Amino acid sequence: MQKTKIFLPAFLIIAVLFLLLFSGNASAQKKVAIKRVVIDAGHGGQDPGTIGRRAKEKNVALAIALKLGNMIQKNCKDVKVIFTRDRDVFVELNRRAQFANDMKADLFISVHCNANTDHSLKGAETYVMGLHKTKANLEIAKTENASILMESDYSTHYDGFNPNSDESYITFSMFQDAYLEQSMEFAAEVQKQFEERVGMNDRGVRQAGFLVLYKTTMPSVLVETGYLSNPSEETFMVTDKGQEFIASAIFRAFKTFKQNVEQPEQALNQQYPKSYVPKPETTQQIKPATDSSPAKQVSSPVKKVKVPAVVPAAEVQAPSTTGISIRVQVASMSKEVPTTSAVFGSLISVRMYVHNGMFKYTVGGEVTMAAAERLLNEVKAKGFKDAFIVFFKDDIRITKEEALASAGVK
After folding, report:
1. Three-class SS state of 377
2. Residue 98: per-residue pLDDT
3. How does DSSP assign 302-349, residue by residue?
4. Which of 109, 40, 38, 52 minimizes the C-alpha distance to 226?
5. Tell me: the pLDDT tens digits for 169-197?
6. How many of the other CB atoms lie within 10 Å of CB of 157?
7. What values do phi and psi take at 233, rounded to 5?
8. Do the Cβ atoms of 185 and 273 come closer than 8 Å?
9. What is the dihedral of CA 203, 208, 214, 216, to 10 degrees?
C-alpha cells in the first residue's frame, strides 16, 4: 500500500512547535509582580486602521495609549512604561509582540477602536488570545490582522498566514496561553471600569485570533475602546476629555490588576470580581465608514456611580438558611479536568465551577471564616501554595461583602 504524504502549512508547523515549548509551563510562568508594561497603539503610518466620519483609528488609539502611559508613570512609580510607538509610524504586528517579549514586559495592552456597518452599535469590548467563537469575533480579528498586508513580505514573516483565510485561523484552536487566566481577569476589570466609570456599553470579554497577541509571553489584551462608526461615540472618543476618561478606565483596571497579582491576600479583603458574563455577541461584518471633518468638543457621557465603602473584616456566621458557603479555591485551568484527577493529590470533595471562562476548583463548604482559614492552611500545607478563600451563595460565586451582608453582618 502506498503511503500518503501529508503536508502542513509552515504556519501550522511552527505553531505546533510553539505550543510544545510554552503550553506546559503555565503555572511556572504566572506573573507575581507588574514592573514593566508595554502599551501598543494599534496601526500607524500608512495603516490608518478603521476610519470614522471624523477620525482615524491610528490617531485615536495613539492619543489614548499615550494618556494611559502617562497615568501609569505618574501614579505607579515602580512601573516602567514602554510604548511600541509614540508617534505616527507603522510598526509590523510581529515586531510589536517580539518587542514586548524582548522588554520582558509583565503586561501587554494593545489599544484599538472598533467599527461596524451597523452604525447603532456602540460600546467597548476587550479581547484575549484564543479561538473566535462567533463570526463577528473572526471578522474583527481579520480586520486587525489585515495590517500585515501592508508589510513588504508578510507571507515570509508570518509563515504563510493569510489574514483573509478562515483556514489560517485553525492554528488558534490549538493555542494554549500560559497567561490566559490573568489576561481574562485583567480584561474583565477593564470592561467593568468602562461600564462603571465611563458609562460605556459593556460588550464583554471575548476571544479571537489576533496576531499581535499570539506570541506574547505575558498577560496580554487587545482593547476595542469604542466604535468610530457610531456618530455619538466617535464624537466622544475624538475629544481630549473623552480620551482621558477612556485612558482612566484602563488605568483603574491596571491598578486593580496589579494589586491582585502582587497582594492577593489583601485583594481578598476587598471586593472580589463577580463571575463575569460577556454580553451577547453580534454576528455582523466589520467594514470601515468614510473619513470626514474634524471633531467638535462635546460633554462626556460619564455617569456617576456610587462606590460602596470597604466592609470591615468580620466573622461570617452562615446558617444553612442563608445558603452561604465559604470554600478554598485550589486550581484554575483553561480545560476541564475530572475532580477526581491526580492533580488534586490527597484533596477530597473537589468541586468545579466556571468563572471568567476558566474552570476553577474548590474544596470545603465552611460556615465561618475561622473554619475556612483553617482549611486554607491545611490546603497550602499539601502544596497548593496559591490557594485562597472564595464565597458562594446557592452555588453561585459572590463577593465577600455580599456574603457578609447575607449573613447579617453590618
Report:
1. helix
2. 87
3. ----PPPPPPPP------GGGTEEEEEEEEEESS---TT-GGGTT--S
4. 52
5. 555 544 545 678 888 889 999 999 999 88
6. 14
7. -70, -40
8. yes
9. 20
Which secondary structure element, helix H or strand E, spans residue 138, and what is its range?
helix 135-145
Is residue 49 within 8 A of residue 62, CB to CB? The reply is no
Q: Name which CATH class applies to 320-406.
A: alpha beta
The answer, yes or no, to whether residue 334 has pLDDT greater than 80, is no
φ/ψ (deg, to 5) at 26? -60, -50
pLDDT at 318 over 80: no
Residue type, 401: E
Q: Is the predicted pLDDT of residue 120 greater than 80, yes or no?
A: yes
> Where exactly are the structural domains of the chain?
10-268, 320-406
Residue carrying C-alpha cell 502582587: 262
DSSP per residue, 147-184: GGGGSTTHHHHTTT--TT-GGGGGGGGG---TTHHHHH
Amino acid, single-letter form, for residue 403: A
Q: Which of 124-138, 156-170, 375-389 ranks highest by mean pLDDT?
A: 375-389
Higher pLDDT pick, 72 / 321: 72
Specify the CATH number of the domain 10-268: 3.40.630.40
